[in-house]
Amino acid sequence: MFNIVLVEPEIPQNTGNIARTCAATGSNLILVGKLGFKTDDRYLKRAGLDYWKHVNVIYKESFEEFLSETDLSKVFFFSKKANNNYSHPEYKKGDFLVFGRETYGLPDEIIQKYSNKCYKIPTKNVRSLNLSTSAAIVLYEALRQNDFQLN
């Protein structure tokens, strides 16, 4: 269906929650670069509950490796520093929805290099939303645009 890409996620509970969302939607979870936790972390497992068997988790050593193996036309980046609204692109099955670390987001060089492919979720009175909340908002917008077809 879709691909949720987390670049160097730091908090196991967020990744676990995102894994559960991936299980619910049939989406892939791609973990890129150095993780801020071990994949056998009890908090990661607890947040994902018993849904891990329903998630296709893919590991990439680096962001460069991810990009070299991915059609850039299918990649969308999400950052509070972006200018465009997340609901503007037309999402299609197989697209890659890329999110950065909880404490910093995507590196500035990615945002600058791919500014035309960067989108934000509008907020008021807070610096940013929780990573798992942000991933779910964008993923469900993509699903809405595709009539919630989960196959």
Please summarize what this structure is.
The protein has 151 residues and is α/β, with parallel strands linked by helices.
Keywords for this entry:
globular, 7 strands, Alpha/beta knot, 32% helix, 18% strand, 151 residues
Oligomer, anyone?
single chain
Could you name the ranges where pLDDT drops below 50 across 5 or more consecutive residues? none
The main β sheet shows up as: 7 strands, parallel
Instruction: Find the CATH topology.
Output: Alpha/beta knot
Average of pLDDT: 90
CATH architecture: 3-Layer(aba) Sandwich
Judged by helices, strands and strand pairing, the structural class is alpha/beta
Helix content: 25-40%
Shape: globular
Helix tally? Answer: 5
Please tell me about this protein's structure.
The structure is a single chain. The chain is of the alpha/beta class and 151 residues long. The protein is 32% helix and 18% strand. The protein has five helices and seven strands. The chain has helices spanning 12-25, 42-48, 63-68, 108-113, 131-145; strands spanning 3-7, 28-32, 57-60, 75-78, 84-85, 96-99, 118-120. It has a seven-stranded parallel beta sheet. Helix 1 (12-25) packs parallel to helix 2. The radius of gyration is 14 Å and the shape is globular.
Topology, pairings included?
Blueprint: E1 3-7, H1 12-25, E2 28-32, H2 42-48, E3 57-60, H3 63-68, E4 75-78, E5 84-85, E6 96-99, H4 108-113, E7 118-120, H5 131-145
Parallel strand pairs: 1-2, 1-6, 2-3, 4-6, 4-7, 5-7
Helix pairs in contact: 1-2, 1-5
